[in-house]
Amino acid sequence: MGLPLLEDFDDPKVPEGAAAIKVNAVGAVRWNAAFAYLDPARGRPNLTIMADTLVDRLHLEGPRVAGVIVRQDGQQVEVAADLVVVAAGAYGSPAVLLRSGLGPAEELAAASIRVRADLPGVGHNLVDHPNLSVWFQPRAGLLEATDTHYAADPGRALTVIRAQSRRCAPDRWDLHIYLFIDESDLDEPPFVSGERFPTIVAVALKPESRGRVRIRSADPEAVPVVEHGFLTDPDGHDVSMLMDGVQLARRLAATKALSGLCEGELAPGADLEDGELQAYARRWVGGHWHPVGTCRMGPETDPDAVVDHNGCVHGFANLFVADASVMPTIPRANTHLPVLAVAERIAEGLRRR
User: Fold this and answer.
1) CATH 3.40.50.1220 given to domain 17-29+129-209+233-284
2) Average pLDDT of span 198-209
3) Tally of CA atoms within 13 A in the half-sphere of 90 that contains its CB
4) 290 is catalytic
5) pTM of the entire predicted model
């Protein structure tokens, strides 16, 4: 395809190329924040971990938070606190703030929640990496070879292509392309639910579209309403990125290296016109489990900003948010390490208080 092999996939000076990505793993176990940060601290005498506990809302007293109201074993419990850090993720954190009366006044009133602070940005600016899969018919032997490969218990990693769409700046990248064997959950032609197929996935890394997270009521048991807003930007930037990604996926499938693995595009279908392909993309676009932005960082003069540069919620002296929701834009990468960087940065500021 004319793309270089990279010594380091994370080298920011090379906008295009392919390499095996680094993963957070110990052996075959994918590592996470609880393993890395919480487990070593479990024995501390000043740490209490309340498992199986649902955060309901914050107990507010004027411009300060006095504690957190939770549900445990069916009972409402209040945990008093001089300082509260909300870290429930880009879906959960705005929901906690909204149930507490912090958010867009009209939306809170519609949910019969008393407005404690009119913060229009809470729940808005949701962004994820939209992706679209190109499915292929496997050639004979591919699935058996896949089973043999996994039976050897290899490290779980992918080789990923970093590439540019036609709209991308020359010194940047805005697409990830990768291939894996996926099990279909569709039960419509040409798929049969449960069958496995090779799929090449195109991921748009810098989307313009924005969605939102909202709540229907103050009930913490009610799942927040997540409106991703994929491919809704008015100038068609995002769907254009994905179309270029689909073309790259097709070029990859047509290479000699893959000629023994894939044959025949099953979906979306090589015979679709541009308009049909865009319609397919709008129907089947998915997220990449990288939601950010719903309590975004910005100055107090910005009416849509929720927290300041320290993660402190505007208008409250002792309330912080420390997770992916504070990111104003989405990085060109998996969000796990950036979230850890955000959390460590906010933690440094809290230690200096």
Assistant:
1) no
2) 96
3) 28
4) yes
5) 0.94
